[in-house]
Structure formats: C-alpha cells, structure tokens
Amino acid sequence: MIGIEYHADLKEVQGDGALARLLGEHARAPFDRLAWWEGLEAECGLRPLLAVAREGDAMAVLPLQGGSGHLQALGNWYNFIVRPLLTAGSEPLLAALARDLRRKAWRITLAPMPDEDGSASMQATAFKAAGWTVLRQQCDVNHILPVGGRSYADYLASRPGPLRTTLKRKGGKVETLIYQQFDEPSWQDYEAVYRSSWKPSEGSPAFLRRFAEAEGAAGRLRLGIARHEGAPVAAQLWTVEHGIAYIHKLAHIEESKPLSPGTTLSAALFAHVIDHDRVALVDFGTGDDGYKRDWMETVRPRYRLDMFNPRNPRSWSHLAKAALRRLAPGRSHG
User: Fold this and answer.
1) In terms of Cα–Cα distance, which of 302, 236, 305 is closest to 31?
2) Average pLDDT of the chain?
3) Mean pLDDT for the stretch of residues 149-161
4) What is the DSSP letter of 274?
C-alpha cells in the first residue's frame, strides 16, 4: 500500500527518522538537504511543501513550494539543481506522487533539473504516466571539471596558455588563505569584497551566512580569501562533499583587477580540493560565463519541466501556446 503525505512544516520532518535520514545524513549534495530548505524558508521566504510517497522502506520525496495551484521546485537562485530524492528502488513511487498531486495543482514547474543522474527523464516519465502533459526544455548549462585522478600540477598544465601566464606573472601579488571552519573575521572579509565587487547586491546574505556556518560545522566549508597588503581583495565560497567541490560564490574588488586576485584565489582553491580533498569533480554551478571555460572541461545541460494537468481549464491556454510554438517553422525544441 502506497501512502502519500505532504509536509508544509519542516519541523515535522525532523521527527520522522527515516525521512530525516534521507534528507540529512544520506543527502548527496547541499541542495538535497533538509537544512538547505530550512534556510530557504527562514531567510528567503520560500513556503515549502514536501510531497512524500512511501511503501514499506521505499520512499520518494519531491521538494516543492508555492500555492494557487501552481507548484514549483523548492529552490531559488542559490540552487545548482533541484530533483526528487529517492531511496533504492523507489522510482515507481514518483508516479503515485504525480497522480495525487493532481488534487493539489494544475501546474508544476521544476528547474534546473539534471539528467546525468536520470532525474529529469525519470520525473517526466512518472508525470506522463500519471496523465500530466510534460513540456521539457533546456534552461541552462552546468560547467564541471572531471578531475580524472590528476594532480593539481597536471591539471594546471592543461589550462589555456593565457591563464597559466597570468598565474605565473601575478600569482605572488596577493596572499591567499582557505578557511575550513566558519570564522567571523573572514566572513566579514567575504561580505566586504562582495559589496565592493561588480556583482549585483546579494539576494540573501543571511541565507549564505547560515549555509556557511552549517557547512563549516560539518567540515565541508572551503572559504577562500585573497588579501593585498592586508586588505581583502577577492573572496570565494566553495563546499566539498562526497568527492565533489561546489563553487557557490566568487567576487573580487574591481579596483584590484590589475592584480588578478580572483584568478590567483581560484588557483589556490583548485589546488586545495584536487591535492588535499582529492575530489573527483568540481562543479561550477549554472550559467555559461566565459571565464568558466578556462577552468572547466565539460558542460552538462540543465532542464525545465513544465507539467500541466490537461483536465484543468487553467492549463488549456498554456498548452495551446506550447503547441503553437512547436509548430513554428525553424524552432528548436531541446
């Protein structure tokens, strides 16, 4: 017998041993973790709705948010990915969730979804089987570095010539430190650099601080600060877990650009995660920024799944527009 439940109160999850383990100690990435969603709720104003299907020991969780009949993935601009969380052998439970969700929503939008692990395809298949109309398109890209057992020296030798020249000429102009525990002065340096950088204002500084504190307590934080004559000029927020290094945020003070502090700091962090942490993969998140190509070697697609209940009249205009777009000559359909 498959049981379906919904949790709008994340505190309920903490009291459910099996569910708490799936979303805690068994989580494989920051974005799969209950603590991540708690931070989004507390600091970013997201309203969670965890859809859960169970049968025996098998469990499937679809993290959602929103209301008014249009549910979306429980994530925001800080997420590299969104995806369902499954125990072994629980894929069939996704279709049961999809069937029950017709009572909750006429539309469900999930992005950015990976598919190298089968998440996007599995989700689309489950919702189609449950009677939803699924529109799938590529919405972003993800630059990664498969380390392949190389040392940092071997990796650096394969980088573009201009990058290696910059590091050779400018590498000694700033001092770099990498913090693996949360440190108040270094976090203040990070925030000062970000405020003085070319970056737009931070969406939720409180969320990032909360995340950095938790990652530091768990030993997963890699906060890099570059200083020139004692003053912070570049900062980067990375985390490491399960053999993957995630590059969350990076910034430098524009006036320090002639020193190339961001490049030097990136090199220090790559050296640390490759030679010390011995990661198998470095993940640069979403976005096709040109500078990522200097450091990364592979690009993976990220997808948006827009799922409509065709029996609900609110879906009809959207489905009609999608049909017209598909009929437009010369249009590519990811």
Assistant:
1) 302
2) 95
3) 98
4) I
Q: What is the 3-state secondary structure (H, E, C) of 128-195?
A: HHCCCEEEEEEEEEEEEEECCCCCHHHHHHCCCHHHHHHHHHHCCCCEEEEECCCCHHHHHHHHHHHH
So what's the pLDDT on residue 330?
61
Tokens (6 digits) for 89: 């052998």
Question: Does pLDDT of 276 surpass 50?
Answer: yes
Q: pLDDT digits over 213-228, tens only?
A: 999 999 999 999 999 9
Q: Are 285 and 80 in contact (CB under 8 A)?
A: yes
Do 90 and 43 touch, CB atoms closer than 8 A? no
- Name the pTM for this structure: 0.95
The 3-state secondary structure of 50-81 reads: EEEEEECCEEEEEEEEEECCEEEECCCCCCCC
Amino acid at 254: E
Report CA dihedral (21, 23, 24, 26) to the nearest 10 degrees: 70
Count CB-CB contacts under 10 A for residue 59: 22
Q: How far apart are CA 35 and CA 210, in angstroms?
A: 10
DSSP single-letter state for residue 255: G
Can you read off the two tokens belonging to residue 85? 């969380």
